[in-house]
Every structure is written in C-alpha cells, then in structure tokens.
Amino acid sequence: MYAAVVTSFDSAPRYQEFPTPEAGAGELLVDVIAAGLHPRVRSQADGSHYTSTDELPLVPGIDGVGRGADGLLRYFILPDTTLGAMAEQTLIDPRRSIVLPEGSDPVAVAAAMNPAMSSWVALRRRISFQAGQSVLVLGATGNAGRMALHVAKALGAAQIVAAGRNAARLAALPALGATATVQLDGDPDAVAENLGRAAADVDVVIDYLWGAPTAAAMVSVITGRADRGKPLSWIEVGSVAGPAAAIPSAALRAARLQIVGSGQGSVAARDFLAELPELVRAITAGAFVVDARPVPLAEVERVWADVSDAGQRTVLLPNG
Ligand SMILES: NC(=O)c1ccc[n+]([C@@H]2O[C@H](COP(=O)([O-])OP(=O)(O)OC[C@H]3O[C@@H](n4cnc5c(N)ncnc54)[C@H](OP(=O)(O)O)[C@@H]3O)[C@@H](O)[C@H]2O)c1
Q1: What is the pLDDT of residues 135-150, one digit of tens each?
Q2: Ligand 1 centroid from CA 144, angstroms
Q3: What three-state secondary structure class fits 290?
Q4: Residue closest to 1 by CA, chosen among 11, 16, 23
C-alpha cells in the first residue's frame, strides 16, 4: 500500500510504498478515507510532541475516518503508534472508534473532531462548566479556537469573548457565536485595555496561546476583575505562542484563579472516548461550521510545506 512515511524528523513525510499491516487480535483493518493534518500530527512527525518515542520510520496521523470489512463508516482515534492514519490502510481498535451515520461527510469529521475535542473535553472533563457562565477563548482564530466558540455555545455559555491575532479571521467570529472580539495584535497597552474591558469578568479561559500573550492576558483579566473572589478557571489547551509563560506570582494570589491543563495525559483516554459520541453527533448534524481543505495523500509532501492553511484544516485523502 501507499502511505505518508517519515524517515527523518528533519524532513516532511514522503508518499511511498509501505508494508500493508495485518490485523491482530482486537484490531480492525480499515481503508482510510480521510485523515486530518492537525498541529498534533505535525509535532508527531517532527518528533517534538511530548509523547514521541523517536521511533522511525513512522506513518503520521492520530485520527481519521475509515471503513473496514464490516462495511461500517467509523471515526477512529489511534493509540500512540508508528502506523498512523495517513496510509491507504491502517489498524484501529474498534473500541476507540465511533460508527458514523451513512451519508456523514468524512472530510468534515476528520477536520473537526480533533480541534473541537480540545474545548469540548476541557469544559466537560477538566472543570465543571455550567450553562450561563462566560468564556474567553484566547487564540480564537485557529481551527480549535473557532470550534471552541461553537462548543461553548452548545454547552450554554452566556458570553463568549474571542481574542485573536489575525484581524480578518477575528472579524468573522461573531457569526460563529462570539459575543465580543479582542484584537491581540498591536499596541500592548491597547490590547491590555481591550482585554480588561471585554473579558475581565469571565468564568473560564480556554487558552490556545500560552507564552507571552498568555502572561499579559492573565494580568489584564485579573487586574480588571470587578470581584477577585469570583472563581476563574484558566484551561491551558495549546501553546502556539510559546511553550512557557512567565506567570506573575501575584496573579495567583490576587484572584481566585486556578490553572489547569487539558490534553493527552491530563485527561484519561477512556474519558476522551466517552466524550466522542455526543461530539460526533453535533458535527455530523452540521451544528459546527467546518472549514476543511481536502488534498490527495499523494500530495502530502507539498501540503506539509504549505503552512498558509492556518484558517483551514487540511485533510488528506489516502484513497481519493
Ligand atoms: N490539548 C488538546 O486537547 C488539543 C487538541 C487540539 C489542539 N490543541 C492545540 O491547540 C493549538 C491550536 O490548534 P489548532 O488546531 O487551532 O491550530 P491552527 O488551526 O493551526 O491554528 C493556530 C492559530 O494560532 C494562532 N497563532 C499562532 N501564533 C500566535 C501568536 N503568537 N499569537 C496569537 N495567535 C497565534 C494563529 O492565529 P492567527 O490566524 O490569528 O495568526 C493560528 O490561526 C495547538 O497548540 C494544538 O496543538 C490541543
């Protein structure tokens, strides 16, 4: 079969022949229809993800949509493996899959599940989010940030403040559920003032940025807060702006702030899996706007180098 194959962490995967796997006990061989090129997949393929074991060669891809000999269309999540989803065929554990209704759009599901899961699981498994609470999405212009607007709305958020860098993408977010937007580019004092005005009293922050923007935003939100005794849950989900943030110690003392992370490890695999059916239902029902770019897997090397797709989720089609 053909697959995207990583033989060095310094170079992009190449489309080449790879041994067809054979299913062992508890495994199902599926024809992969669609596999998302998520940031997590890039970090898997360059060896930088915290779960990397440095084993090569590897076929990247952490999830996807496929069909096995039982004829069922499934969304699947793979375990940490060197045989990922970016192959004509892969091995799945059916217990880590959800059967999709026939007629579901495999590209939309493959594009949306990973980014949508980030906020869905964070709000449902890492804090006890209540309908009527208000949310700040920090880094709302990416795929996961945009999905977080849908998710927060679906879970009953009263106010959703979207903060992001790209002005054009930010301007599109009220149509997706943002009740206010804050531009993160520009004069730092103006950014701080705008964040303080729009988001100082939120109950929850879903943070895709980390790094310097998070440290600055935390100060703005806390110092602008009308009631510092009101709980503030800051959920660290992504780190596109930097792996470390200089959080002032006073921020932790001056307000009722709790910082938690949400991701592989802090949420057990069984808890991720338990959240899948409801999220799949929302996505296959068309409740979320999904912006996907389907590309044949044969073009993997070219699209890997193209990082101009931040507004869209690239989805590779191994059999298309
Ligand atoms: N923990 C989890 O469960 C989980 C699950 C999924 C994703 N994630 C993580 O969430 C993050 C976002 O994923 P994604 O799928 O949304 O990626 P994406 O679609 O590639 O979007 C990334 C966005 O980050 C923004 N960005 C990059 N550097 C920035 C900076 N310095 N300041 C402000 N914005 C910046 C860009 O915004 P502009 O367009 O405004 O430039 C871009 O749109 C990644 O770190 C990913 O690994 C975590």
Answers
A1: 999 999 999 999 999 9
A2: 7
A3: coil
A4: 16
Among the residues of 68-210, which ranges form H helices?
A: 106-121, 143-154, 167-171, 188-199
Per-residue confidence (pLDDT) for residue 52, from 0 to 100: 81
Find out if CATH 3.40.630.30 is the number for domain 2-104+290-317.
no
Chain segment 29-61, per-residue pLDDT in tens: 999 999 999 999 999 999 888 888 888 999 999
Q: Whose CA is nearest to atom 36 of ligand 1?
A: 142
CATH classification number, 114-261, choose in 3.40.190.10, 2.60.40.10, 3.40.50.720, 3.20.20.480? 3.40.50.720
CA of 76 to the centre of ligand 1 (A): 22
Cα-to-centroid distance, 297 and ligand 1 (Å): 23
Report the nearest atom of ligand 1 relative to the CA of 309. 20
For residue 184, give the ligand 1 atom closest to its CA: 33
In this prediction the pTM is 0.95
Residue 131 CB neighbours (<10 A): 8
Q: Which atom of ligand 1 is nearest to the CA of 38?
A: 15
